[in-house]
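pipeline stage [seq->struct] | target=Helix-turn-helix domain-containing protein | organism=Paenibacillus sacheonensis | residues=769
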Amino acid sequence: MSRHSRIFRNFLISYIVILIIPSLAGYMSYRTSINVTQSISIENSVTQLQKSQQMLERRMAEVEGFTRQLALNQDLYVLMNEKQGSDDGNVYGIWKIMKEVMVFSQTNDFLKNYYIYLRNYNVVLTPGSAYFRPEHYYENAHYTDMTLQQWKTDLLGKTHSREVLPLKPFAMNGTQTSVISYMQSLPLDSFGAQAPATVVVLIDQKTIASLLAGVKDRYGGWTYVSDAQGQAVSMLGIGEEEIKTMNGDGGIDKAKQSQFYHDDLVITIRSASTGWIYRAGIPRKALMENANDIKYISWSVTGGALLIGLIVGWFLSLRNSAPINRLMGIVREQFGKDAPIGRNAYDFLQGNISTIITSNQALEQELNRQLPLIRDAFLKRLTAGEFQTREEIQAAAAQAGTGLTLNDGGVVGILHIHGYTGLDAAETVEILNELSAARLLLKQSLRDITGGILTTDLGSDRVVAIFPSCEDGETDIDRSEVQALLEPFAASMFSDYKITVTGAFGDPFASGMEVSRSYEQAKETMGYADYIMQRKGFLWYADIRQESTTYYYPLDMELRLISTIRAGEEEEAKRIVQSVLQQNTEDRELSPEMANQLIGELKGTLLKLLDQKAFAESEGFEDAKDRIMDIQLTGSLDLIRTGLNGIIESMCGMITSKKNDLHIRTVEGIKQFIAERYSDAELTLYRIAEQAERPEKYISQLFKEVTGTNLSDHLEKVRMDRAAELLQEKSLTVDEIAVQVGYNSSHSFRRAFKRVMGVAPSAYRQSFD
């Protein structure tokens, strides 16, 4: 018992020391914290308000993300760009859009109330209803301070880009509330006076206030949010009149983050992204109560923690010393000896555990000796295809220590040792031993070539070998590299040991799950080599020409051919046709009937594509159709390929021509706009893109492709040409001419003129004197 008590005491003393050190540090921290409690409370309040700000901005970002998802919705894009007939409407399309967007209102409380206005149909879509006249929606839900006409004009009749309408009273189904409104026109790049569609998200003030309730719930204070113009977005615990009074008080410094106003600590944060102003008020009394609470809580917690720590330390000392005592008892029983008197218990355990480790190492060595048998069994199961999942292969490969991973590529081969055919019925121990030695030499020689080859026996005179890919990350093995390894190997086996070796290989595999397929192909190839060709050397499965009664033209390849032609990608379309013809002529032997059907399928694909609107309105439509119909199997493969390629060139040319015509018209419109507005100093790429109704980057790239000149250089050239004309007239000063051609600064004008024309404006004018 004395030894047991010593271990227990050591543990207990350690826990007591651990308790004393943080207790001393905690006392010092307590003395310091009393002096800074008020500042910490202020920082916590600021943090709480910042978190509320981040939550609100994140939720508003989700609202913006919702409108962007609507902008990317293909069904909505088609619907809002349809031309509304006089007596019909796309009721199914409207119903489908309602069904698709309804899920947003079920997962986000900021999106419970929103509507989408489709201008072409004059319809308002909500999560649960469709109003085929805006007046009907206005009867159920409207701003109480806004008439129907104002609503139509200001919200539905204008183009909006991430606009937020401040807090306004709102009535919905007879219920009065206040909402802010997030407005976005669709598509996102709408610049005109009226957009095809408008999305309005109505966010209840109570929902916003719930995100800002943390400060009020914690301190009993108030919160207020306003936009950059000072208009209210949310109020909680304070009235609008009180806010106006405080804002008008000269004692409030609007630049300060925290300050005392009367009996409240006022915290102010301005959002860098939205410009919104967040304010929170915390009663001074609440801040001081926190300081006293910390004082009493600190003493109570420290005393309770010390008491609980002593109890827990006592318990842990008993619990942690008990296993060591039991372990020592087991060691004494197993080894039949006690710990020496005065010796540390851990030293006693260390000596005996060392003996156990030594015994374990001997056992591990025996297991390593058996590892080749485990590896051989794994390879036999792998080639037989007995594994069902990749995870199962990975686990078995790791256990067998093969180094095979799921991403390894390679090929399976069967190597045949010749010279023993016909001896099966009269095998003797000597012949079997000789074959066993030959197999051993064969496998050892393969390992000498490269350590990555895995081998296993197949009968008495054959060896299965798995050749991994030669480079990391490669899933396709190079056939020439395998040939380069095996041909010198076979010559060496014959010259050194008089052993003749031939081999058969399947197709390469990309992962462990395909090893069995490659193995079966190797077996088939071996039979072909042994009994049909009497081949010497090495034969690959790909060398056996396969006959087929069906042609190769899968649906995904047809869809790829259609999409590439529609995109005008001529070379890629030709490559697809070449691949189809190669698969069906070089890798297969098709009957004439199957070949006719294949050509018919290819012609059908081109005819089906030609009937689409993009081609039907082109001048070469009839010619291309006649050329497709003229393709027959009676010609040679080269004639068929040439004919198909010619048709592809023609069809892609139609697409390219349409694109070029549209691009030229767009660029000419840009040039005309610049010629009319070059004198505007605010004429920027954004303004030009707005007029062309295209994105800025698209306009810039298109202008460069069509004209070979940057858009900014063209604008500058137009201005300089006009400036040169005005300088020749001599009726205006240089500063006046700078304003006339769109420059706010005469210095910028002079520098640009000299860069383009090569001389200063004054020198250019003097040259005409």
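stage status: PASS
auto-comment: The longest strand covers residues 175-186. DSSP finds 26 helices and 17 strands in the chain.
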